[in-house]
Design brief:
454 residues, alpha/beta, Aspartate Aminotransferase, domain 1, Aspartate Aminotransferase, domain 2, 7-stranded mixed beta sheet, 5-stranded antiparallel beta sheet, 39% helix, 18% strand, EC 2.6.1.19, Aminotrans_3, pyridoxal phosphate, Class-III_PLP-dep_AT, Aminotrans_3_PPA_site
C-alpha cells in the first residue's frame, strides 16, 4: 500500500463519482443535515497525506481531519500498537480497573508540556470535554465562577463550550440559552485593527482594550480563569502576540486568575514546536492549565488537561473523569504518536513545510490582489481573502469557489474565520515536498481562476 503514501493527486472520475453519489443519497436519507460535510466524496483508505476515495480518485489532504492527522493517515507503527492493545482489552474504565498506559501517558505529557513546575494530567475524549474540565478545575481551585474568553475563539460545541465560543453561525445559532458566567474580551486581530491604528501600534491598542475590559466589564475578584488559544483556529488562524500574552499573564498573576491555554488545534508539532505555548515559555511565560487533543491520538478520540499539580488536585475524588476517558486503545496510540514525533523531529517537519508554503503564499499575495493577509506559526497557516485590500471586504464567496475548484482537482482544503474568508492549512506533517508543491500548484491555479472571474 506504499504507493498511496507516495502518490500525487489523480482524478479519474468527476467528484462526486457514482459510488460517492449513492452514499451521498444514503447520507441525506439517514444523517441529520446539521452534521455537515465539506468534500462531496467518501474516503476508502488513507496513507500519509493522501487518501483514495470510493471511486478510485487519489486526493491530497490539506485539512488532516481538522488538525487530527499531524502524523498522517495510517502510520504503520501506530497501527501495530493499536492492534496489540485491541488483542488484550478494549476497555475497563480508569475509574474502576486501572491500566498502565493511562499513567504512562500522563507522565509523558507532564514532562513535555511547558511549565517550570510540577504538573498532573487527566484524560477525556474530545477538545470540548478538555475545556469543560479545565473550567471545572479552575472554578474548584479558585472558588470563583466567572470565565473570560475572546472574540473569535472556539472551544467546543457542548453547552458550556458553546458559551465560551465566540462565533454564532453555525456553532451557536438557535441552541441557546447558554451557560452563564462567560465573558468575552476582544482578541488582537492585527489585520483587522481599526482604521487609523498603525500596524506597529496595534498590539499596544489591543492591550489597552484588555486593561479596560478588566476595569469596566468584569469584577476581577470573581474571575476563575482566562481561556485563550495561542493561535486562534476557527477564528481565522490568528497568532496571539507575545506582548499580549505577557500582559494577560500579568493581569492573571496580580488578581489570582488562572491562565488556561487551549492547544487543542495548535498542539503536537503543528506550529513548529511540540506545543505553541513553547513560544510563550521562551519568554518566561507559562499557562496554569493547558488543554490538548486532536493530533494526540492520531485519530483515536482522546484529549488531555494538564496543569499545575496543586490546581489539578483541587477536585474531590470522582469529581473529574468519565466512562471512556483515557481509553486504553487511545492511550497507547498517543504514546506512540509522541514517541514518533520526538524521534523523527516532526516540529522540524512543520517548520520545513512553513518555509515552502509561506514563501509560496507571499508570492501569491504579490500576484493576486484577492489575497489580503498571510499569517501563522509553523505549518498552521491562514490566508485571508478580500475583494478590496483597502476596505478589507471579505471574499467569502470567492473562497467557496476556490475550495470547490481545489476539490475537483484532488486537493482538500477548508476555510475558517467568522467571515468564512480565510483558508486554513493543516496538512499532515509527513507530507513530501513533491506532494506539498503539487497541492500548492492546484491551489494557485484555483486562486488564478477565481481572481479572473472576480
Amino acid at each position: 500500500m506504499t504507493e498511496l503514501r507516495n502518490s500525487l493527486p489523480k482524478i479519474t472520475t468527476k467528484i462526486p463519482g457514482p459510488k460517492a453519489k449513492e452514499l451521498i443519497k444514503l447520507r441525506q436519507d439517514n444523517v441529520p443535515v446539521g452534521v455537515s460535510s465539506g468534500v462531496p466524496t467518501f474516503i476508502e483508505r488513507g496513507e500519509g497525506a493522501m487518501f483514495e476515495d470510493v471511486d478510485g480518485n487519489i486526493m491530497l489532504d490539506f485539512v488532516g481531519g481538522i488538525g487530527v492527522l499531524n502524523i498522517g493517515y495510517s502510520n504503520p507503527e501506530v497501527i501495530e500498537v493499536v492492534k496489540e492493545q485491541v488483542s488484550k482489552f478494549f476497555h475497563s474504565s480508569i475509574n474502576v480497573v486501572q491500566y498502565e498506559s493511562y499513567v504512562r501517558l500522563a507522565e509523558k505529557l507532564n514532562s513535555i508540556i511547558p511549565g517550570d513546575f510540577k504538573k498532573k494530567t487527566m484524560f477525556v475524549n474530545s477538545g470540548s470535554e478538555a475545556l469543560e474540565n479545565a473550567v471545572k478545575i479552575a472554578r474548584k481551585y479558585t472558588k470563583r465562577t466567572e470565565i473570560v474568553t475572546f472574540t473569535g475563539g472556539f472551544h467546543g460545541r457542548t453547552s458550556l463550550t458553546m458559551a465560551m465560543t465566540s462565533t454564532i453561525k453555525p456553532y451557536k445559532l438557535g441552541f441557546g440559552p447558554f451557560a452563564p458566567g462567560v465573558h468575552q474580551a476582544e482578541f488582537p486581530y492585527i489585520y483587522r485593527r481599526p482604521t487609523g491604528i498603525a500596524k506597529e501600534n496595534a498590539v499596544k491598542y489591543y492591550i489597552e482594550k484588555l486593561k479596560n475590559f478588566f476595569l469596566e466589564k468584569i469584577n476581577v475578584e470573581d474571575v476563575a480563569a482566562v481561556v485563550i488559544e495561542p493561535l486562534q483556529g476557527e477564528g481565522g488562524f490568528l497568532p496571539t502576540p507575545i506582548e499580549y500574552v505577557r500582559e494577560l499573564r500579568r493581569i492573571c498573576d496580580e488578581n489570582g486568575i488562572l491562565l488556561v491555554c487551549d492547544e487543542v488545534q495548535s498542539g503536537y508539532c503543528r506550529t513548529g514546536r511540540m506545543f505553541a505555548s513553547e513560544y510563550w515559555a521562551d519568554n518566561g511565560l507559562y499557562a496554569d492549565i493547558i488543554t490538548s487533543a486532536k493530533s494526540l491520538g492520531a485519530g483515536m478520540p482522546i484529549s488531555a488537561v494538564t496543569g499545575r499539580a496543586e490546581i489539578m488536585d483541587a477536585s474531590q475524588a470522582g469529581g473529574i473523569g468519565g466512562t471512556y476517558a483515557g481509553n486504553p486503545i487511545a492511550c497507547v496510540s498517543a504514546l506512540k504518536v509522541i514517541e514518533i514525533m520526538e524521534r523523527d523531529n516532526y516540529a522540524a517537519k512543520s517548520n520545513h513545510i512553513a518555509e515552502i508554503a509561506m514563501d509560496r503564499f507571499n508570492k501569491m499575495k504579490e500576484k493576486y490582489k484577492i489575497i489580503g493577509d498571510v499569517r501563522g506559526l509553523g505549518a498552521m497557516i491562514g490566508v485571508e481573502f478580500v475583494t478590496d485590500r483597502v476596505t478589507k471586504e471579505p471574499a467569502s464567496k470567492e473562497v467557496k469557489s476556490i475550495i470547490k475548484e481545489c476539490n475537483e482537482n484532488g486537493l482538500v482544503i477548508l476555510n475558517c474565520g467568522v467571515r468564512g474568508n480565510t483558508l486554513r492549512f493543516l496538512m499532515p506533517l509527513c507530507i513530501t515536498d513533491e506532494q506539498l508543491n503539487a497541492g500548492l500548484d492546484i491551489l494557485e491555479n484555483a486562486v488564478s481562476i477565481v481572481s479572473i472571474k472576480a
